[in-house]
Structures
1.
Amino acid sequence: MQLLYFGLRGFFRDGFRVFDLLIVILSWAMEGTQVIRAFRIFRASRLITRIETMRNLLLAIFNVMPKMTAIFLLLILIFFIFGVMFTTLFKGMYLDGELTEPFFESLFYSFFTLFQMMTMDSWSTIMKQIQEEYPTAWIPFVIFIILTGFVVVNLIIAVICDAVSILGGVDNNAGLSAYAAEDGRPKEVCIDGANYNIIEQKVEGGGKPSSQLCTTTAQRLEELQKQLDDLVVAQDQMRRTVKCVSQIGRKQLLRMEEHDHLDELPCTGSEGE
């Protein structure tokens, strides 16, 4: 029905429809394994592409996959080193009846036991059983728990939290981007990435701005410093101007006083005569 509705080209444009078609064909081809139809439940994952928040979260996690890969490689290396160590040190204890389970009888058992210890599931019970034969066996156990249960797991959590915080910063930028009205003219609020510099552009005629003008923090600081320097220069010029005007005023006042004194001298001489 979907093939008839969407057509051949439109049907194959959607990956989920192609996935559904493959499941149906495989279930028809292998009638004895009807369990394949259960995989159709993965169609529910298409909600990720429909909900923007979930899609952004998934993209943020994909962006930190290189870091996650490096952490998993480190974890594999730690597992290999301690797996070989525990297998070499404690192999044969189960056959001797000293352990209740074959925790370290082979490299495969050692890897499974180390994973159990990393999840903090009854690791102390395993350690105490081995300590009955080797009292100092707690040293490699504690070192492994610190490296995996605390350091590596917390590294994974930190990387995921970093991805979520980056996603939160993007959402904040999108939320701060808006239009504000002042004097009947809209203003565009523009945020520059992680610097959160807000620049408002007034638009004549009430129309939407055609472009956004965003500056970095360094450029904004340079502009502010330049304005401050201009203010200092203007203040110096104003002070010099006031000083010159005051000096000129004093000279004019002295000249007027001298002129008045000279005008008074003849009058004084005539009175003396």
Note: The chain has a mean pLDDT of 75.
2.
Amino acid sequence: MISDFATVGVRSMNLAFAVGVATIPHPAKAHKGGEDAYFVSDYGGGVLGIADGVSGWAEQNVDPALYSRELMANAEAVVSSEEMDFDAQMLLEKARTATTSIGAATVIVALLEKNGSLHGASVGDCGLRILRRGRIVFATQPQQHYFDCPYQFSSDPGGQSAADAVVFKTDLEQGDMVVLGSDGLFDNLYDQDIESVLSTIGGPDQDSAQRGANALAVLASKHSRDTTYESPYTKEAIQKVGNWTISQ
């Protein structure tokens, strides 16, 4: 699970991210650093990206982390190229086609122009929230073929491409908070949880961003280990599948 949290501040009269990142892998995956990957770039006002390796590949003796890590490395390598011009969908496709590892991943990227325009694209169930004055004012929605089977980039020919991505653009203001996360974050935190946690965070600076990322990741991890907690994931499972045994 990755919690990637940014606050929007002024840098030389332009808007820019102050970023904090926290990762808490599933206990069974901690020995290898988990299966999620991310990158942060200071291109423009800042760029954030998260990829979540699809765990099912482990059944074929493939490390799911390899695909997600290469995908994010490829995205970081091309994000500042002139042709990209804050095109989030193009960034995903360039990264996907350059990735040669076996496996699959869900993914989201968000690129901030210095004028405050935020460009984003996602495939699958990584997500983004924007908070303004303490309230969520924008949220992405997950893409799924069916419950627990999200859209994904894949080395198999049946995977999605960037043409299948949800693409969005919105304008940020100074002091806005942006939360990116893999499904491990949003499976275990309701939007009101995110609002509550971040209500205690300070201004748009690096220390505040890091405290926010840490706090979100810690609470999500706590909820994931609590077998009595009806998480967003568990609630959806009961609604769509019926009786459900928690196995996260």
Note: The radius of gyration is 17 Å.
